[in-house]
Amino acid sequence: MLYINGEWIETENKMDVINPATAEIIKTISIGGQLETKEAITKAKEAFKTWKKTTGNDRSTYLKEVVRLMKEKATKMAEIITKENGKPLADAKSEVAGAIGYLEWYAEEAKRIYGDTLPASQPDKHLMVIKEPVGVCAAITPWNFPLSMVTRKIAPALAAGCTVVLKPAPATPLSAIMVFDCFHEAGLPKGVVNLVIGPAEEIGNEMTSNPNVRKVTFTGSTKVGKMLLRDSVATVKKISMELGGHAPLIVFDDADIDQAVEGVMMSKFKNSGQTCISTNRIYVAENIADEFGEKLAEKTSRLRVGNGTENGIDVGPLINKDALKKVEEQVQDAKTHNGKILCGGKTFEIDNVNGCFYEPTVIQNANENMRIATEETFGPIAPIFTFKGEEEVIERANHGTYGLAAYCYTKDIGRGFRVMRELEYGIVGINDPAPIVIQAPFGGVKESGMGKEGGKYGLDEYLEEKYVSIHAT
Ligand code: ADP
């Protein structure tokens, strides 16, 4: 289903949406391509002419109505997320709350877009800076947070006065459709928000080459992000990129080991390890590594794997067979490089169910020769590396091309600050495995991306500064 200029559109071409826990078809939906994307961009441009002139209060009112409608449909939305993404229902519910949170936050911020006046260099001049919306924004979102990634982009865009064309991930379009249902019901003016579902490359090419798109905002892999960046150069678009990560988590020997184990459980196995801030490398001080490994394996082996709709499930399926294959290959590779499997280590079969499950796995003795040391895992695999000294571990933690999130466990506050300053990452959690909140800037450095989402920083990404000098005597 496409949503263009305030109308739901059916097409001849269809796509199945599959439940990764059961391999069943959840729904068959219409898709569109280059033509539909172009049309959506044209309509978004027309709508921008009037949407940009609305007051912050007006935009706030619209967004608050979307919030009200999403709260009404929250349970249904969580069920849809679990069906198309696989994550346990409790996690889906917190995603819905987060998604609504972004809309609520930016409904408030829409009223607080301030400019500046500047001191002039001569008495008869008056200088000011006003903030203006960027224009038509093309948003591309991933499947791992199919609802909250949509609102984290669209809410600040609308608050700023931009109009939007969204392309959600083909694996999880139903969450996006539900948000657009709310936009429709809230009575957003025609063309302000548009939804195009279909072949990624075709839609992406139109988005990046069309001069009417003034901003591209993307969350996904570094590989695709680089292509979009390259293709956006010709028309010099404003860009936000939330790309891959390979988060280190360092446990010093002065840390509270149980707290650090809990931290790994949360930052590694949530969403089956399929988040870009998931811990990928656990660096544990050599003298506590055995104890840490034992405790982590003990807790990990108690996690319940299964269909996210069932009660008490901790870890759902991976998104598809390719994801499962990648995890299998990484574990196999770790074994051939002397990795010791403390628990898990194989696919997880459920009788009569054709899902993409993998056992939560702890690998002791991890080393830099393993693929898992540099390649993003996106699965429930916890490799434990050991280290001797602070400088050494910082250098190893900073190794590689990614720079999204990093974690550190220590009870020494001085060490916590030192390490935090040295880590080349956009997000750092000290004794905190879950640092993400709506008011904070989410984003990476190095090849993890550019630009921030969340809080006041997220709004700036959709605004331009216009400098005005008035000569008036
Ligand atoms: P992942 O490997 O996590 O699926 P991707 O970067 O492939 O990450 O996907 C993230 C989003 O980017 C999805 O919406 C996907 O459809 C989209 N995408 C993938 N390839 C392209 C492309 N060539 N142009 C535009 N969007 C793309």
TrEMBL record:
<dbReference type="Pfam" id="PF00171">
    <property type="entry name" value="Aldedh"/>
</dbReference>
<keyword id="KW-0560">Oxidoreductase</keyword>
<dbReference type="GO" id="GO:0009450">
    <property type="term" value="P:gamma-aminobutyric acid catabolic process"/>
</dbReference>
<dbReference type="InterPro" id="IPR016162">
    <property type="entry name" value="Ald_DH_N"/>
</dbReference>
<feature type="domain" description="Aldehyde dehydrogenase">
    <location>
        <begin position="8"/>
        <end position="468"/>
    </location>
</feature>
<dbReference type="InterPro" id="IPR015590">
    <property type="entry name" value="Aldehyde_DH_dom"/>
</dbReference>
<dbReference type="InterPro" id="IPR016163">
    <property type="entry name" value="Ald_DH_C"/>
</dbReference>
<protein>
    <submittedName>
        <fullName>Succinate-semialdehyde dehydrogenase (NADP(+))</fullName>
        <ecNumber>1.2.1.16</ecNumber>
    </submittedName>
</protein>
<dbReference type="InterPro" id="IPR050740">
    <property type="entry name" value="Aldehyde_DH_Superfamily"/>
</dbReference>
<dbReference type="GO" id="GO:0004777">
    <property type="term" value="F:succinate-semialdehyde dehydrogenase (NAD+) activity"/>
</dbReference>
<comment type="similarity">
    <text>Belongs to the aldehyde dehydrogenase family.</text>
</comment>
<dbReference type="InterPro" id="IPR016161">
    <property type="entry name" value="Ald_DH/histidinol_DH"/>
</dbReference>
